[in-house]
Design brief:
The protein is α/β, with parallel strands linked by helices and about 300 residues long. The chain is built from nine helices and twelve strands. Strands 1-2-3-4-6-8-9-12 form an eight-stranded parallel barrel, surrounded by five helices. Helix 5 packs parallel to helix 7. The radius of gyration is 19 Å and the shape is globular.
């Protein structure tokens, strides 16, 4: 389980900048954001992605996945095909898709909406099979006030409405820890639903604060550094190791940076924290397998 960072938060960093960041923080690789405005984007991905991945590999850094645009794009689009072709050339195995959205007051029957989404996924599964990669769909909580509607696949239970029946070699599940806090789904419970499809885990902490909304209640979301939110990290790592998960752990680091704080310093702390949690869970699993050592 390599600790990698999602480069959405690092749009200005070229390869050299990413290498220096990894050297300072202890990161083990990157989840490259392949979007407009980033060094690798849909227009150049077929040629540039292999170059960037090779340069990072020369510095000892892994790129097991890339993330595309947040809005859904069809597999038939030229940009989609260029990205997956670039991934195949670069040896990058996992691609995060964009999202489907659903508006209960406008988009008709939910299950018909899901059926249409699954037809779109079928095209992506075919493209993934052709290129020898896997496409992944991410659990994402709703965004208040977003005119597009609710994200389809807000938790693991709903994500399985999309994924069930697909070949896990072509279509995978991407769990967001902080997003599950919002949806109220326990991590281990969600993991049990889709473990056959699990490909990527997003590491991000958050907690909810109740606020007053007129004469009603609402909540405010706080995306925090790891350990300061509501995610039970010991349980997350224990669950993943018990199930034999060995995919990427992608850190989103979208926490609030307070006055006088440095993003990079917080990222260093985040990497150290997650490495400790990973090692503690691995040590506990070794003790289950062999309780004889004195430190067990």
């Amino acid at each position: 389980m390599k600790l990698i960072a999602f480069t959405k938060m690092l749009p200005a960093r070229d390869v050299g900048g990413l290498v220096r960041l990894a050297q300072r923080t202890g990161l083990e690789g990157f989840d490259l954001c392949v979007r407009e405005g980033y060094p690798v984007h849909p227009g150049n991905a077929e040629k540039e992605l292999p170059v960037v991945v090779r340069q990072l590999a020369e510095a000892g850094l892994s790129v097991p996945m890339v993330t595309g645009e947040g809005l859904w794009h069809a597999a038939t689009e030229v940009a989609s095909q260029r990205i997956l072709a670039g991934m195949a050339r670069a040896g990058v195995g996992l691609y995060k898709l964009g999202y489907f959205f659903y508006r209960p007051d406008r988009d008709g029957d939910y299950w018909q909406h899901v059926d249409a989404a699954r037809r779109e996924l079928e095209a992506w599964a075919s493209l993934a099979a052709r290129e020898g990669v896997k496409v992944c769909y991410h659990t994402h909580c709703d965004v208040p006030g977003l005119s597009l509607g609710y994200h389809v696949g807000t938790n693991c239970a709903e994500l399985m409405h999309l994924l069930r029946g697909f070949d896990p070699a072509q279509v995978g599940a991407y769990i967001g820890t902080g997003n599950l806090v919002v949806s109220g789904e326990p991590f281990e419970y969600g993991l049990a639903m889709l473990s056959d499809y699990l490909a990527v885990v997003e590491l991000q902490d958050m907690h909810l604060e109740r606020v007053q909304a007129g004469d009603e209640g609402a909540h405010r979301r706080h995306w925090t550094p790891a350990g300061q939110g509501a995610v039970s990290w010991s349980s997350v790592f224990k669950s993943l190791i018990r199930r034999g998960f060995d995919g990427p752990l992608t850190m989103h680091a979208e926490f609030e940076v307070g006055q006088g704080q440095s993003f990079e310093e917080l990222l260093v702390r985040e990497v150290i924290y997650f490495k400790q949690k990973r090692e503690q869970a691995l040590a506990a699993q070794r003790c289950i397998a062999d309780p004889a050592p004195a430190n067990c």
